[in-house]
Design a protein that fits this description.
Radius of gyration: 18 Å
Order of helices and strands: HHHHHH
CATH topology: 434 Repressor (Amino-terminal Domain)
CATH architecture: Orthogonal Bundle
Strand content: under 5%
Structural class: mainly alpha
CATH class: Mainly Alpha
Length: about 160
Protein backbone atom coordinates (compact mmCIF):
# COMPACT_ATOMS: atom_id res chain seq x y z
CA UNK A 1 0.00 0.00 0.00
CA UNK A 2 2.86 2.38 0.82
CA UNK A 3 4.30 1.81 -2.65
CA UNK A 4 0.97 2.70 -4.30
CA UNK A 5 0.76 5.89 -2.25
CA UNK A 6 4.34 6.90 -3.12
CA UNK A 7 3.72 6.20 -6.82
CA UNK A 8 0.49 8.22 -6.80
CA UNK A 9 2.18 11.19 -5.11
CA UNK A 10 5.02 11.02 -7.64
CA UNK A 11 2.53 10.87 -10.54
CA UNK A 12 0.63 13.91 -9.22
CA UNK A 13 3.92 15.80 -8.84
CA UNK A 14 4.97 14.88 -12.40
CA UNK A 15 1.61 15.89 -13.87
CA UNK A 16 1.52 19.17 -11.99
CA UNK A 17 5.04 20.06 -13.19
CA UNK A 18 4.06 19.03 -16.72
CA UNK A 19 0.90 21.13 -16.96
CA UNK A 20 2.61 24.13 -15.39
CA UNK A 21 5.43 23.95 -17.96
CA UNK A 22 3.36 22.95 -21.02
CA UNK A 23 -0.02 24.67 -20.65
CA UNK A 24 -0.95 26.72 -23.76
CA UNK A 25 -1.00 29.87 -21.61
CA UNK A 26 2.18 28.94 -19.76
CA UNK A 27 4.71 28.23 -18.71
CA UNK A 28 3.43 29.16 -15.27
CA UNK A 29 5.65 30.04 -12.32
CA UNK A 30 4.64 28.65 -8.96
CA UNK A 31 3.79 32.18 -7.85
CA UNK A 32 1.56 32.85 -10.87
CA UNK A 33 -0.25 29.51 -10.55
CA UNK A 34 -0.69 30.06 -6.81
CA UNK A 35 -2.26 33.45 -7.45
CA UNK A 36 -4.48 32.15 -10.22
CA UNK A 37 -5.65 29.03 -8.38
CA UNK A 38 -5.93 30.34 -4.84
CA UNK A 39 -3.59 27.58 -3.64
CA UNK A 40 -0.52 28.66 -1.69
CA UNK A 41 2.82 28.61 -3.44
CA UNK A 42 4.15 26.46 -0.62
CA UNK A 43 1.41 23.85 -1.15
CA UNK A 44 2.15 23.76 -4.88
CA UNK A 45 5.90 23.43 -4.33
CA UNK A 46 5.29 20.63 -1.85
CA UNK A 47 2.96 18.84 -4.28
CA UNK A 48 5.62 19.11 -7.01
CA UNK A 49 8.45 17.81 -4.85
CA UNK A 50 10.01 14.50 -5.94
CA UNK A 51 8.49 12.67 -2.97
CA UNK A 52 5.15 14.41 -3.44
CA UNK A 53 2.85 15.53 -0.66
CA UNK A 54 -0.54 14.69 0.74
CA UNK A 55 -2.43 16.92 -1.67
CA UNK A 56 -6.11 17.47 -0.98
CA UNK A 57 -8.77 16.95 -3.61
CA UNK A 58 -9.69 20.60 -3.08
CA UNK A 59 -6.18 21.63 -4.15
CA UNK A 60 -6.24 19.43 -7.26
CA UNK A 61 -9.69 20.71 -8.27
CA UNK A 62 -8.67 24.36 -7.74
CA UNK A 63 -5.52 23.96 -9.82
CA UNK A 64 -7.28 22.06 -12.60
CA UNK A 65 -10.16 24.55 -12.70
CA UNK A 66 -7.81 27.55 -12.77
CA UNK A 67 -6.12 26.06 -15.85
CA UNK A 68 -9.39 25.34 -17.66
CA UNK A 69 -9.20 21.58 -17.07
CA UNK A 70 -12.64 20.25 -16.24
CA UNK A 71 -11.59 16.61 -16.05
CA UNK A 72 -10.25 16.58 -12.50
CA UNK A 73 -8.96 13.01 -12.87
CA UNK A 74 -6.17 14.66 -14.90
CA UNK A 75 -3.85 14.40 -11.90
CA UNK A 76 -4.85 10.83 -10.98
CA UNK A 77 -5.55 8.88 -14.17
CA UNK A 78 -2.91 8.30 -16.85
CA UNK A 79 -5.46 7.99 -19.67
CA UNK A 80 -7.20 11.26 -18.75
CA UNK A 81 -3.77 12.90 -18.40
CA UNK A 82 -2.87 11.84 -21.97
CA UNK A 83 -6.26 12.85 -23.41
CA UNK A 84 -6.26 16.30 -21.83
CA UNK A 85 -2.64 16.90 -22.87
CA UNK A 86 -3.58 16.00 -26.45
CA UNK A 87 -6.37 18.58 -26.28
CA UNK A 88 -4.07 21.20 -24.75
CA UNK A 89 -1.41 20.52 -27.40
CA UNK A 90 -4.00 20.93 -30.16
CA UNK A 91 -5.22 24.16 -28.58
CA UNK A 92 -1.66 25.47 -28.33
CA UNK A 93 -1.03 24.62 -31.99
CA UNK A 94 -4.25 26.37 -33.03
CA UNK A 95 -3.12 29.43 -31.05
CA UNK A 96 0.31 29.34 -32.76
CA UNK A 97 -1.43 29.16 -36.12
CA UNK A 98 -3.73 32.03 -35.03
CA UNK A 99 -6.84 29.96 -35.72
CA UNK A 100 -9.90 31.99 -34.83
CA UNK A 101 -12.59 29.42 -35.57
CA UNK A 102 -13.16 25.84 -36.64
CA UNK A 103 -15.97 24.53 -38.78
CA UNK A 104 -16.89 20.87 -38.46
CA UNK A 105 -18.39 18.91 -41.32
CA UNK A 106 -18.82 15.16 -41.16
CA UNK A 107 -17.67 13.39 -44.27
CA UNK A 108 -16.17 9.97 -44.69
CA UNK A 109 -13.85 9.09 -47.49
CA UNK A 110 -12.02 5.95 -48.51
CA UNK A 111 -10.29 4.40 -45.51
CA UNK A 112 -12.04 6.73 -43.09
CA UNK A 113 -14.68 5.24 -40.83
CA UNK A 114 -17.62 7.14 -39.42
CA UNK A 115 -16.30 6.23 -35.98
CA UNK A 116 -12.93 7.94 -36.58
CA UNK A 117 -14.68 11.03 -37.96
CA UNK A 118 -16.95 11.16 -34.90
CA UNK A 119 -13.96 10.74 -32.58
CA UNK A 120 -12.21 13.63 -34.32
CA UNK A 121 -15.36 15.74 -34.15
CA UNK A 122 -15.74 14.98 -30.43
CA UNK A 123 -12.08 15.81 -29.80
CA UNK A 124 -12.32 19.15 -31.62
CA UNK A 125 -15.61 19.99 -29.91
CA UNK A 126 -14.01 19.25 -26.54
CA UNK A 127 -11.00 21.41 -27.36
CA UNK A 128 -13.18 24.32 -28.43
CA UNK A 129 -15.43 23.97 -25.37
CA UNK A 130 -12.39 23.98 -23.08
CA UNK A 131 -10.89 26.95 -24.93
CA UNK A 132 -14.11 28.89 -24.37
CA UNK A 133 -14.07 27.99 -20.65
CA UNK A 134 -10.46 29.14 -20.35
CA UNK A 135 -11.28 32.37 -22.19
CA UNK A 136 -14.17 33.01 -19.78
CA UNK A 137 -11.98 32.26 -16.77
CA UNK A 138 -9.28 34.61 -18.03
CA UNK A 139 -11.74 37.42 -18.60
CA UNK A 140 -12.89 37.17 -14.98
CA UNK A 141 -9.33 37.53 -13.64
CA UNK A 142 -8.18 40.96 -12.50
CA UNK A 143 -5.83 42.76 -14.84
CA UNK A 144 -2.16 43.04 -13.81
CA UNK A 145 -1.75 45.61 -11.09
CA UNK A 146 -5.43 45.60 -10.15
CA UNK A 147 -5.93 45.18 -6.43
CA UNK A 148 -7.90 42.25 -5.08
CA UNK A 149 -10.54 43.04 -2.51
CA UNK A 150 -12.18 40.73 0.03
CA UNK A 151 -12.69 37.13 -1.06
CA UNK A 152 -10.36 37.59 -4.06
CA UNK A 153 -12.68 39.91 -5.98
CA UNK A 154 -11.21 42.80 -7.85
CA UNK A 155 -11.86 46.13 -6.24
CA UNK A 156 -10.95 49.75 -6.61
Amino acid sequence: MDTAIRETKAAIAKRLRHVRANHPEGPWTLAALAERSGVSQRALASAESPEGANVTLETLVKVAHSLGISRYAYFLDEEVFRQVNTELDALAEMQRQQVEGVSLRVSTGPGQSATSVNELKDLLTGILDNAEKVRGALQSLPSPGEQLGPKGRSGS
